[in-house]
Amino acid sequence: xxxxxxxxxxxxxxxxxxxxxxxxxxxxxxxxxxxxxxxxxxxxxxxxxxxxxxxxxxxxxxxxxxxxxxxxxxxxxxxxxxxxxxxxxxxxxxxxxxxxxxxxxxxxxx
Length: 110
Description:
Elements: H1 5-35, H2 39-43, E1 52-53, E2 59-60, H3 67-75
Antiparallel strand pairs: 1-2
Helix pairs in contact: 1-3
């Protein structure tokens, strides 16, 4: 049985894109669940004052609660009653005003 050429083309495209989409998904899940950082935070961690450099030279997120709790917080799922997602409204957790110290280090501001 022969298939149409466009079916072959679609299958090749699907296979190609499935590889990089899977890699990107795995990378994002690792960063968010294991490191508790977004891609932007990971790339610019040195610019943000709230990330702490560990003894090994890696940046540590102060928002990391462990892999299971991070997954629970992101997905909004509870796991058997043992882990419950945090219901924190982060916009109301911190007081900021214009006279406070900037979030970015001054060497990086324009």
